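Figure 3 (text version): C-alpha cells given as input.
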C-alpha cells in the first residue's frame, strides 16, 4: 500500500500528463485550449484529489486507484502542508496552462499517433525494462486513433506502407530543466530502437518544458546509446545479486540494502514507515 502513496508534486505532474494525453487525442475538445481554462481544469482535479487523500479512505479500500498523499500520511505540519500545496498547485497550473499553447502538443494533435501514455515492457541488451511514454507520433497527418494496439509485425507493415519518416517521442516536463533529462533521452532512444524498431537517425526526442514553453529536440547520439546498452546488463546484474533466493524478483536480506546516510533522501520516502518504524517526518 505504501508504494501507492504519492507526493504533492508527483500528483500535480500526473494530472498534467493525463490532461496532455486527453488533449493530444482531442478528448477535451476546445474546452482546454486556452491557458486559463486548462489551469482551471488542473485546479479542479488537484483539489478533488487533495480532499480524497485527506481521509485516506479511498486509498485504504483500493490503493491502486485511491489517492493518499505522503504529506497527509506522515502528518506534515499545517503550515508546511499549506506551503507545499500552494507550490505544487502553482507549478501544476503553470504547466497545464503551457499545454494550451504547446507547439509539441499542437504537432502531436495533427500527426499520426503511435503511443499515448503507454507503459510498455521491452528488452534492451537482454534486460527487461519498463518504459512510460508520454506521446510518440510520426510525421504523417493523423488518420485515426493510435497505433499502440498493433503488433510489431503489423506496425512494421503500416510503416512500410505509409512512410519511413521521423518518429517524435515527446516527454512533458512540468518542472525545470535537469541534467538527468539527458539520461532519459538515451533510455527513450534505446526503447524506440529495440522495442519499436525505429532506427536512431529517424528518432527525435522532444523535451517539452511546459511552464516556460521551451522545447529541446534531440537526435539521439548513437555512441551514447551504445554505451548505455553496454552498461545496462552489469547494472541489472548488480541489483539481482542482492536478491535472495536467486531468481527472486523483490526479496533480499536487509544487509544487502543498507539505509542511505543522506537523511534528506528520507524526507519524502514513501517507505519511511516500514524503514524507520514510525509515521512522522523528522
Ligand atoms: S526512509 Fe527511505 S530513503 Fe531513508 S533509508 Fe529508509 S528506505 Fe532509504
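Below: residues designed for each position.
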Amino acid at each position: 500500500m505504501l508504494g501507492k502513496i504519492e507526493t504533492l508534486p508527483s500528483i500535480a505532474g500526473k494530472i498534467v500528463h493525463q490532461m496532455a494525453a486527453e488533449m493530444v487525442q482531442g478528448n477535451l475538445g476546445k474546452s482546454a485550449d486556452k491557458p486559463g481554462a486548462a489551469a482551471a481544469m488542473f485546479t479542479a482535479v488537484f483539489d478533488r484529489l487533495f480532499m480524497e487523500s485527506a481521509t485516506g479512505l479511498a486509498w485504504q479500500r483500493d490503493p491502486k486507484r485511491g489517492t493518499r498523499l505522503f504529506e497527509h500520511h506522515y502528518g506534515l505540519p499545517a503550515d508546511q502542508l499549506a506551503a507545499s500545496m500552494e507550490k505544487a498547485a502553482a507549478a501544476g497550473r503553470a504547466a497545464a496552462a503551457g499545454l494550451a499553447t504547446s507547439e509539441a502538443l499542437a504537432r502531436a494533435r495533427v500527426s499520426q499517433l503511435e503511443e499515448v501514455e503507454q507503459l510498455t515492457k521491452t528488452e534492451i541488451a537482454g534486460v527487461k525494462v519498463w518504459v512510460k511514454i508520454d506521446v510518440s507520433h510520426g510525421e504523417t497527418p493523423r488518420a485515426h486513433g493510435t497505433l499502440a494496439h498493433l503488433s510489431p509485425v503489423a506496425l512494421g507493415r503500416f510503416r512500410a506502407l505509409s512512410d519511413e519518416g521521423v518518429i517524435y517521442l515527446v516527454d512533458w516536463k512540468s518542472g525545470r530543466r535537469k541534467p538527468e533529462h539527458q539520461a532519459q533521452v538515451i533510455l527513450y532512444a534505446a526503447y524506440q530502437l529495440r522495442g519499436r524498431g525505429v532506427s536512431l537517425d529517424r528518432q527525435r526526442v522532444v523535451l517539452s518544458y511546459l511552464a516556460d514553453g521551451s522545447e529541446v529536440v534531440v537526435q539521439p547520439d548513437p555512441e551514447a546509446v551504445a554505451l548505455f546498452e553496454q552498461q545496462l546488463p552489469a547494472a541489472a546484474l548488480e541489483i539481482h545479486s542482492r536478491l535472495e533466493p536467486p531468481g527472486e524478483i523483490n526479496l533480499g536480506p536487509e544487509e544487502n540494502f543498507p539505509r542511505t546516510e543522506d537523511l534528506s533522501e528520507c524526507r519524502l520516502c514513501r517507505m519511511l514507515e516500514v524503514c524507520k518504524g514510525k509515521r512522522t517526518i523528522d
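The pocket of iron/sulfur cluster is lined by residues 259-260, 265-266, 269, 271-272, 275-276 (CB under 6 Å).
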